[in-house]
Each structure stands twice: as structure tokens, then as C-alpha cells.
Fold these 4 entries.
Entry 1:
Amino acid sequence: MIQIEYILVLSAIMMFAGVFGFMTRKSTLAILLSIELMLNAANINFAVFNRMLYPQGHEGYFFAIFTIAIAAAESAIAIAIMINIYRQLKNIDVDELTKMKW
């Protein structure tokens, strides 16, 4: 069986990769993927801590499933927004979104 520390290290690496991608990327699609990476790291933590603290309970898994459902809805809405931005500006870079303010 894999030790819990290894899974938590994997989750921390995923979280830091997501934060780094969110801070450095210019494309809205890459930013969305970074947010999804951070949400998946949180889901791994839910499952690991549930297994560590309450081995017979399923609360962490339910939180993870709920988070996955919210992430799917968030992705659908974000992609719809990106499509509308692309139709207006022919570009989905974050720097170009200031043109839509006026």
C-alpha cells in the first residue's frame, strides 16, 4: 500500500504547478486548466484525509465528488465565456480582455 505522505507530496506538487500556471499563463484556457489542476489536488487531499482520519467513513469522497461536479459546471461556463470572447476579439489572451471594459 502507498504511504499517505507520498500521496500528499503528489497533491502538493499538483497544487504548486496549478498556482504557477495560474500566475504565469496568458491564455484563458491555460488558466482554466491550472484551476482544474488545483481542484484535483484538493480532491486528492479530501480522499487521503478521509482515509487517514475516518477509514470507515465516506465524507471525503462525497466532498470530492461534489467538487468534481462543481468543476465540470465551472468548466462549461468558462468555455462558453471563452467562445464569446473569441468571437468578439479573435483572441483569448488575458491581456486583450481589457478592451472589453469599454
Note: The two ends are 57 Å apart (CA to CA).
Entry 2:
Amino acid sequence: MDITILYYLVPSLIMFCCGVYGFITRRNMIAMLISLELMLNAVDINFVVFNRFLYPENMEGMFFTLFAIAIAAAETALAIAIIINVFRSAKNISVSDLSKMKH
């Protein structure tokens, strides 16, 4: 049985769509961050799959994915620090309550 590119792209598409749905529907900043990470992981899977199937002798997709994972880890650490500071001042991490902090 030959494994085609579709076996990798369909789960990646499902992951990305779940991430978009979670990001749009959730109002909790932690849940939105998790949804964003889900979308980034789906994109990383696509980088590796397209590199593997289009240029199997090169490693650019793998290296770019490792770089993207490192950037995502830094972004997550920064986002969690922001969420902690928002919680300290507002005692809530709901996105709808953040507009009240402007006043």
C-alpha cells in the first residue's frame, strides 16, 4: 500500500480547522492560545510533508519546522506572561473583559 500525500494533509487540515474554530469561538485567552498552537502545528506538518514529497533529498522543510517550533515556544511563553499580568490586574482572562481595561 502506497502512502500518498493526502494521508498527511487531511489530518493537518482537520487540525487547522479545529484551531480556527477554537480561536473564533473561545473567549478565554488560554483556550485561544491553545487553538493558535494547534494551527501552528498543522502548518508545521505541512512544511514537513511538502518537503518530504517534493524535495526528499533536501532538509529545508525540516529546518524551517524546527525554527517555527522554537518561535512558537517563545511566543507561547510571552503570551502566558501577558495572560498572567492581565489576570493580576483584571482577575479574569476573558477577552470580552479586556475592553474594560481601556477606561
Note: The helical segments are 6-25, 29-54, 60-90.
Entry 3:
Amino acid sequence: MEAIPIQVPLIVAAFMFFAGVYGFLTRRNLITILMSIELILNSVNINFVTFNRYLTPENLHGQFFSIFVIAVAACEAAVAIAIIINIYRRFTTINVENVAELKY
């Protein structure tokens, strides 16, 4: 069986990263912005695992970093969704343009 060249996962990660950046910069819905951030973090995980596989396959440093990033992303998503729910309760919208001020 033939190994996958290193360019393939790096190209996939680059497409995911730029799709996340594009979604973050162009979307105005807070949920889609959160999903774009998750795309960016997942592309970083792909890079960690890919470089670990091709540079030091005997170590698992890339996988450990990926697990750490996944845990941080889960915490970030939970906090962000709680903030989005509070914003919706206060302003009855989750569009960034309609939420002009964030007061207590």
C-alpha cells in the first residue's frame, strides 16, 4: 500500500483554514462565526498530526497537541454558546450588526 504524500493533508488543511477565515470575516451570524473558528482549529489539528506523522512518527507529540486543542475548542464553544444565548435573550437577534452594545 502506498503512503499519502504530505501535500495532500496540507492542502486540505489550507482549504479548511481559508474557508474558516473567509467565514469569520464575511458572516454576520454569531453561530456561523463560531463554526468558522472551529474550522480554523480543525485545520490546525490536521497540520499537527501531519507534521508529526512525517517528521517524528515514533513520537505522539502532534496527537497530544491535537487533543489539547480539541479540549480547548470544546470549552471555547461552550462559553461562546452561553454568551450567544444571553445575547439572544437580551437583543432577540444573533446578528453581529444588530448587537451594537454589550452592557450587563
Note: DSSP finds three helices and no strands in the chain.
Entry 4:
Amino acid sequence: MGTQQEYHVGIYCRLSVDDGTNNESMSIGNQRQMLSEYVCKQGWNIEEIYIDDGWSGTTFERPDFKRLICDIESGRINLVIVKDLSRLGRNYILCGQYTEIYFPERNVRFIALNDGIDSIQTNNDIAPFKNILNDMYAKDISVKVRSSLHAKARRGEFLGANAPYGYIRDPNDRHRLIINPEVAPNIKRLFELVASGDSLYKTAKIFTDEGILTPADYIRFRKHNPADGEFVPQYKWDKSVLNQIVHNQRYVGDMVQCRKRIQSYRNHKQVWNPKEDWIVVEGTHEGIVSKELFDAVLKAIEGRTRIIKKKDEPHMFSGLFFCKDCGRRMAHHIHAKSDYFSCGKYRADGKAACSSHFITVSALSEIVLADIQKHVTLLQSDEEKAVKRIMDSKFADEEKRLSKAKRDLREQKKRQSELDSRIKKVYEDNVSGKLPDELFQTFLRDYEVEKVTLKESIRSLEDEVHTLEAVKTDASQFIALLRQYTDITVLDRPTLIALIDRITISEPPDSFGRNRDQTIEIHYKFAGVL
């Protein structure tokens, strides 16, 4: 007579706001009690209880679920139990991967108690169907939540987690904004300084020098406990922060929302909506600045262009030359005997922010011209060899990926055709009486689930093939573009704009003097760094 396996049980509980906080039967406490009682009745050992409270089932990036997986990998857990399959998750593809592949491969028993699913039993055919229903429920809830939020946004209700800098939530109506008298004067002063001619760089320096707390530090300050010691600011005012503020229409009293959206109910990454899809409701709260001042500031910023002194047109490297170490544009300077670039962040904030990256315009021009001429010469001496060299050095990896993606796409489309044939065959066998109804339903369900998975995979592979083929086209475009400059002897702005996306300069943090170890990278149109 065999001995019963010793189980080390991991109880997993999950609840999100989408599941309904008023549903007592779904509460974390109810799940934990029900599962604990069941495990004890079986005489098993509860090794650990894992709880993800407030986490959506459409993602598996949950802290306690990841902790459960780590304990499975270490051998601490060999039985996972949940109240039902929807507690494991609502993404049917990933749920299937865990229940059908991951758990069995690691000899982990899986039980969904209320669904009657136990991986050591053979009557679990309903599991894939339940996973699909749970996924459909998550999609339906996502659509309803989004519709509800859009309706509130159209009514002018504030939906953000934190009020924008300069405002607080109305204590009597959390969906309405009122002016925060502590920091609203900073907003008004910012607009007045920029309207009077000060740049965002200069204004940021003024605010920093005066010790005015940034929006991020102000939030930290409001939460700071004096018992923890003196509050220490972490951030400095930056042009990008000020730029966001002066472009924010909320400061004139209008509510602007739905600027971003999540990519899908499964992928919670946020992406920007087109501006025409933003929901704007005018006059929902008191403005900090007038509409006239707001418009004057935007006009001042958009009308300000970078031109070199003593000339009326942009420098030929303007908008193309960047510091690789901090990402800021290189600033152009002209003095009596010097024409050079230095890092814009170093110029604005000093050596604590970045190093100088000093380089003369003549030196930069010489480097860029020599690099262009090198590639042109290579083309002129042996075009076939030059093309192959550029393709091999820049696009070899993409070529391998393209070949593999095309092969995988062919195989998956072939499998898709096979599934269509098999589905047709089981229908015919069922109609003729060769295949019992129970087996027919089982085969059909499995085939349909695989078809859905294949459809997603094929779409992804088609996108990858399209992207990689575009890379090959780009290589040909670069070669054709380079042929137009076979006689280049001097640089000008039209040539740089046509050939180059950006130029970067980097240098070691301890470099100094005129003998510095600098690296110039030229990112060519269609080809990148060669």
C-alpha cells in the first residue's frame, strides 16, 4: 500500500476593486478562512499564505504571487490552492500556462476549490473554458470602468490620484479642485517671470536658489513627520517640470483629463492619447492665472528659437548635437576668439550637474566631415563590398531575427490551417456518430483555445516581420542617400539635416583640460551609428 505524499501548501488569495468590495464571499478574510479549513481537514501542512489585496487579475506582476513562484522554485511549496480560478488570474493565456505547463513541470499540485479543479484528477476539462470566461469578465469590467471614468471626466469631475501642484481637493467634494494658498503664488510667479522674458532655465535657477520646494518635494514635505528629523529636499527645479506646468490648461480653471490610457485590459502600460481625444471641460474651478497670461506665456515659449549671436539663422549643428552623459542639448557660444559648444546642463547648473564637454565648432566639423567622407570613399572604391560591409555590421542580427520570425510565422500559419481541418473533421465525425458528444466538446474546446492563442502569436510575428523588413529598407535608403554626397568637401546645415539624426559627445567624469578623452557618435539617417 503506497504512502500519501506530504504536501507543503501555499494558500493564494487575491482581491481587486473590480471584484466588488461589497461582496463578502469574495473578501480576503473569507478566502483565507475557507481554504485554511479545507487544508486542515485534509491533514496537510500550511506552509505559507500569500495575499494580493487590491491587485488586478489581468496582470501576474503581483508581489505575493511572485513570492509564491519563488517559493515553488526553491522547493518550499508543492501544492497551490485558490478559492476559484479567477483568484489565480483573469488572463486565460497566462492562467493556462501556469495550470497546464508550469505547475505540472514542477510537480506542483493545483486546486481551485469552488471550481472542483484538482490537477491530480482527470476531470479538469472545464478549466480552459472557465479561464476564458474569467478573461472575458475582466475585459467587460475594463470597458465599463473606462466608460464610467469618461462620463465623470465629461462632467468635469477631477479623477487624478493627486491634485496638481497649486491645488488641493475640495474637502466637501473630492472631485473638485480648490486653490492651495501655500504654493499657488509660485505658479502665478512662474507665469509672470516667463511672460516678462525670463527663460525656463533661468526661472528654474531662481526657484532653486530661493529654496522653493519642487512639486515632488512639496508632496514629501506634507507627509513628513518632524519626529523623523529635519526635512531634506531631494530635487531641484528643472526646465522640464516648469514646461509641464506652463502647458497645463488646468491653471486657467479648465479640467483636462484622459490625456493617457492603458494599452489594454491585460497590459497596464500607459500611452498618450492624441490631443483631440483629451476631455476638456472649461470653467470647472478657479484659475490661478488668467487666460491672457497663459496664452502670452505659450506664445513666448513657442516663439523663442535657438539662434547663434550676430546671425539671424540657426547654427548648422542646432538641434543635432547632444551631451550623451546627461542627454541635454549642447549649447553654442561665441566669444571674441572662440566659437565652441559646451553641455547645456553644465552651463545651467554647474559642474555638480554635468561636465563641460567643451569642443570647438571647427573640431566638431572636422570630425563629422571626415566620417562622412570615409563612408563615401568606401562606396566609391568598391560599392558592392561597401554595401555588404554596412549591411553586415549594422543589420546582421536583424537579418537573423527576420529569418527566424518568417520561419515561425510559416509554421504557425500551417498549424492554423491544420486546426481548421481538424475542427471540420470533428464536426463531421460528430454528425456521423463516429465521435461522441462529450469527446466532440472536449476536442472543439481545446482547438478553439489553441486557435485564439495562435491568432495572437501570428499577429505579433507579422508585426515583427514588418518591422524587420523596414530595417532592411532603411539600409538601402541610407546607401542611396550617401551616394548623393560623393563630392562633399565642406559641411552645411542642409547636408547635416539630410544625413544625420543626431550627434552625441561623451567624456569620462574625471577628464579635464584640453587633452580629454572624448567620444563623438554620429547617428545617421536610416542607419544609426556605423
Note: Confidence is low (pLDDT under 50) at residues 20-25, 305-312.
